[in-house]
Amino acid sequence: MRNPEIICVGNIVVDAVGVYVDKIPDEGALALFDRVEMHLGGCAGNMALALGKLGLPVGIAAKVGADGLGDYCAKTLQDGSVDTRGLARSPSDSTSFSFIMVPRSGNRRILHTLAANATFGPKDIDTALFSGAKWISFNGLALIPGLEGENLASLLKAAHAAGARTAGDTAINDRFTKADWERMLGPCFAHFDILFPSEVEAILITGETQPRKICDALRARGVKIAGVKLGERGCAILSDDGYAELPAYNVQCVDTLGAGDSFMAGLIAGMLRGLAPRDAVRLGNAVSAHCVQAVGATTGIRKLDEILAFQRMRG
Fold it and tell me: How far is CA 214 from CA 75, 112, 169, in A?
């Protein structure tokens, strides 16, 4: 069996999404909300499912518990056309879980337990899966203690040794200081072909606040294509083709969950198709625009041809 062209390495989570949660009740009190939905989530899980929905060959390397939620993750991924040979099952860890509170504004709050992601690391990853891959993306960085520093650097080197290009996407961790980010990414910057943190993380990683300076700082550390996701403002990118700030598509936002992960899916899809970095970023923006129009991290994503048609219509 051939390995997929894209491998997503990182965290996988079961998301219980509460809609709409506009107020957090006081201790001892109760508040009502409309409904709850169950979705597979986590940065690697989201990106892998998004790529599967786009119609691209994708696999995942992640870890879940040997429990009912882990069964749900495996089936959801398989149903979403994701190769799950790299999905490790732990008999001693539960599957990671998040309760996501979505207000009517769409800007969600998350309560999260690391669970199996807290013990996921190189020992759980069969790098034979890297053979034949064209892109290997490392997702959820800062929420996976085993994918930091030299551990992460060793996997990035293994990806390059297998002939793949590498991408990285960070996650917010409110316990991380700039020193923590340096410990995690310091040995790794030069091994990323693409590194695309969100704005909050990028500021902590680089110490810079302006998108151009953030990108400059990442390129100075050896990242080949450096970017920063700017939320509703779009994103910024710096590559050998120069610097650009590319606006987000103007759509009705229902839920921002998975927006960054779907952006990465579109970006890597574009790079896989041979697009120039700026055009690949525009495709990332288009996939993200579909994501935010529906509740759930991947619910709104369509086949790649439909996304491309949307881009042609929007210009």
Answer: 39, 28, 15
CA gap 80, 248 in Å, rounded:
26
Burial of 313 (0-12, 13-18, 19+ CB in 10 A): exposed
Contact yes or no for 156/192 (Cβ under 8 A): yes
Q: What is the token pair recorded at 5?
A: 């062209």
* Residues in contact with 250: Cβ distance below 8 Å, sequence separation at least 6, in sequence order: none
Q: What tens digit of pLDDT does each residue of 123-162 get?
A: 999 999 999 999 999 999 999 999 999 999 999 999 999 9
SS3 135: strand
Q: What is the CA radius of gyration of the chain?
A: 18
SS3 188: coil
What is the rounded distance in angstroms from the CA atom of residue 277 to the CA atom of residue 271? 7
Tokens 């909050």 belong to 200
Cα of first residue to Cα of last residue in the chain, in angstroms, is 40
Angle at 45 between CA 44 and CA 51, to 5 degrees: 90
From its phi and psi, is residue 234 left (phi > 0), alpha (psi between -120 and 50) or beta? left
Cis peptide upstream of residue 20 (ω within 30 degrees of 0): yes
Q: What is the pLDDT of residues 191-235, one digit of tens each?
A: 999 999 999 999 999 999 999 999 999 999 999 999 999 999 999
The string of pLDDT tens digits covering residues 290-302 is 999 998 889 999 9
**Phi, psi angle pair for 265, to nearest 5°:** -60, -45
The answer to whether the Cα torsion of 289, 293, 295, 299 is positive or negative is negative
Q: Alpha-carbon distance 266 to 281, whole Å?
A: 7
Class of domain 6-22+34-314: alpha beta
How many residues in total does the chain contain? 315
Kindly report the CA angle at 285 between 10 and 191, in degrees rounded to 5? 40
Structure tokens at 113: 């337990």
> What are the structure tokens assigned to 124, written together?
């759980």
pTM metric for this prediction? 0.93
